[in-house]
Description:
With 93 residues, this protein is mainly α. Helix 1 packs across helix 4 and helix 2 packs antiparallel against helix 3. The N and C termini lie far apart (41 Å).
Amino acid sequence: xxxxxxxxVTYIWRCLLHIPVGAVVSWVIMLGYxxxxxxxxxxxxxxxxxxxxxxxxxxxxxEDMRKKDFAYPDIGGxxxxxxxxxxxxxxxx
Length: 93
């Protein structure tokens, strides 16, 4: 599938708009490890973050089935957000 002109700009824009979604989910996942929560509760933020991300992916795929607007730029942008925040968290130490 060849993408040109306005469609390419739209896909890039949609990808950039969804980077914060991945960053917020990544932050929630890491919250349990950075706040030194007591042992039974340290996995709760990770569980909530993973559930939120699965919900986001289901929402995007459902929207793609209804509107046929291709969900991959939205999901791809959120994956970039996850990767960038995880890299920041690892580098920051």
